Amino acid sequence: MSYVAVMPYRVESWKQACLDTCRFDDLLLVDNTVTNLGIMRAHNLGIDYMRERDADWLIVMSAAVRFGDPGGLDYVEQLEANTDWSVIPAQKVYGWHLIAFRREVIEAAGRWDENYSPYGYDDVDYSVRIWKALPDHKEGGVPVDLTDAGMGHSLKLGGVKLDNGRLLRYLVSKWGAPHGQDFSVYWDHPFNDPTNDVGYWPPINGAAWDRPAPNTTQASVR
Fold first, then answer.
1. Is the alpha carbon torsion for 179, 139, 144, 106 positive or negative?
2. Pairing mode, if any, of strands 57-61 and 3-9?
3. Is 70 within 8 Å of 23 (Cβ atoms)?
4. 55 CB contacts (<8 Å, ≥6 apart)?
5. Of 91, 206, 84, the residue nearest 148 (C-alpha)
6. Count of beta carbons in the 10 Å neighbourhood of residue 18
7. Using N-to-C axis directions, what is the helix angle for 164-175 and 122-133, rounded to 10°?
8. Which neighbouring-strand residues pair with 192?
9. Residue 148 — φ and ψ, nearest 5°?
C-alpha cells in the first residue's frame, strides 16, 4: 500500500505545529498564505501528486491536527488494515481535518469543485458525488492518536472571508437541495443535466481554477 498526504496551510505557525508531530513519509504542502486559492485547489494538486506517485490513497489533512507519539503512522496502519473500506476519516477531528480516499474513489468522483473557494460546502458536494458514483462503497471512522485544534486556523487566524449564502445557493443549484439531506434527495447529475457526469463543475471567471498555482513543497517529515 502507498499513500500521499496533502495539507493546504494558511497560517505558518499552525502548519509548523502540525508538522512537528507528523511522521508521514510523503506530504505535499500547498502554500495558500499569500493568495488564498481555497482548499479545493490544494486538494486537486494533491490528486495530481497522487497520480504522479501512483499512490493507492490520498490523505487530506489540516494544519489543525496535532498527532500523538505514532505521528500519524497508526492512521496509515488503519488504511492497510481496512482493505474493504474506501473512505476512512479519523475519529476525534472536526469535519474532514484528517480523511483518506482510496484512489478508485477519486477516479470515480472526480476533482474537487473549485467554485466552492475559498471554503464551504465542498465536503457536502464531494460526499454526494462519491455516493452517486459508488453507492455501495464502504467507509468508517478509525481511532487515531491525535488532537484537533479546531477550524479557526484557516478561518479566523487566516482572515478567510466567507460568503456562505453564495456557496449554499451554488450547492442547491448544482444538486437540487441544501446540505443535510439523504443522498437520494440530490439529483443524480450536477445541475440536473444527464450529460454531466458526477465530476462535472463549471468554470467561472475569476474562480480558483483560473488563478496561478500556489507554491508546493514535497516534504518528508519523518
1. negative
2. parallel
3. yes
4. 2, 3, 4, 26, 103
5. 91
6. 25
7. 20
8. none
9. -125, 120
User: CA quadruple 41, 47, 50, 56: dihedral positive or negative?
Assistant: positive
Q: Pull the grid cell for residue 61.
A: 489533512
By the 10 Å C-beta count (0-12 exposed, 13-18 middle, 19+ buried), 128 is classed as buried
Please write the tens of the pLDDT for every residue from 27-58.
Answer: 998 876 556 567 888 899 899 999 999 999 99
Give which of 118, 124, 68, 76 is closest to 96, Cα–Cα. Answer: 124
> Which positions ≥6 away from 31 have C-beta within 8 Å?
9, 214, 215, 216, 217
Whether residue 103 contacts residue 59, with contact meaning beta carbons closer than 8 Å, is answered with no
Query: Using one digit for the tens of pLDDT, what is the confidence trace for 59-80?
Result: 999 888 999 999 999 999 999 9
pTM: 0.87
* CATH number assigned to the domain with residue range 3-211, chosen from the 4 options 3.90.550.10, 3.30.1360.120, 2.40.110.10, 3.75.10.10: 3.90.550.10
Distances (CA, A) of 51 to 3, 4, 34, 103, 139: 10, 10, 26, 9, 22
Name the residue among 161, 153, 122, 152 with its Cα closest to residue 35.
Answer: 161
Q: In the numeric block, which cell numbers belong to residue 130?
A: 462519491
